[in-house]
């Protein structure tokens, strides 16, 4: 029986390992390359930005279902005005206008499912 101390996320744990079968001579432990401090167990998180065809396009930030459409084609909107409500992950998300302008195209309706990056409204 062999005893080892293993660190997991900086916490040391003492473990006992018993060899069952296999070669009678104990194997040498494999070389482990140490990681830089502060990066163990962490991965870089990137924020996905949906592709936008033009500056006036309002794309879905995540997949979901349109619950309410609060504007119609031809309506004048102000920056920050709620255009529609998108349900995603059981949460209601207000999708707002990025700029002042006029709704040139409305590509969604209540109950429609959208994918991330899909253009829902175009503001001219």
Task: Please summarize what this structure is.
By secondary structure, this protein is mostly beta strands. The chain has no helices and ten strands. It has a domain at 57-123: Beta Barrel (OB fold (Dihydrolipoamide Acetyltransferase, E2P)), CATH 2.40.50.
3D structure, described in words:
It contains no helices and ten strands. Residues 39-52 have low confidence and may be disordered. The strands form three sheets. The chain has a four-stranded antiparallel β-sheet with strand order 3-10-8-5, with no helix packed on it. The chain has a four-stranded antiparallel β-sheet with strand order 7-6-4-9, with no helix packed on it. Strands 1-2 form a two-stranded antiparallel ribbon. By secondary structure, it is mainly beta. It is rod-shaped and about 80 Å long. The chain has a domain at 57-123: RNA polymerase II/Efflux pump adaptor protein, barrel-sandwich hybrid domain (OB fold (Dihydrolipoamide Acetyltransferase, E2P), Beta Barrel). A hairpin with a 2-residue loop joins strand 1 (2-8) and strand 2. Keywords: Biotin. Pfam families: Biotin_lipoyl (PF00364). Residues 48-124 form the Lipoyl-binding domain.
List keywords for this structure.
124 residues; mainly beta; OB fold (Dihydrolipoamide Acetyltransferase, E2P); four-stranded antiparallel beta sheet; 0% helix; rod-shaped
């Amino acid at each position: 029986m062999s005893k080892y101390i293993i660190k997991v996320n900086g916490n040391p744990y003492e473990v006992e390992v018993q060899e069952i079968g296999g070669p009678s001579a104990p194997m040498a432990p494999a070389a482990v390359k140490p990681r830089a401090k502060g990066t163990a167990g962490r991965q870089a998180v990137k924020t996905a930005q949906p592709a936008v065809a033009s500056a006036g396009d309002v794309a879905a930030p995540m997949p979901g279902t349109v619950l309410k459409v609060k504007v119609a084609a031809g309506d004048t909107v102000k920056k920050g005005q709620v255009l529609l409500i998108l349900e995603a992950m059981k949460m209601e998300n207000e999708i707002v206008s990025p700029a002042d302008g006029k709704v040139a195209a409305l590509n969604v309706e209540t109950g429609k499912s959208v994918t991330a990056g899909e253009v829902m409204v175009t503001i001219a």
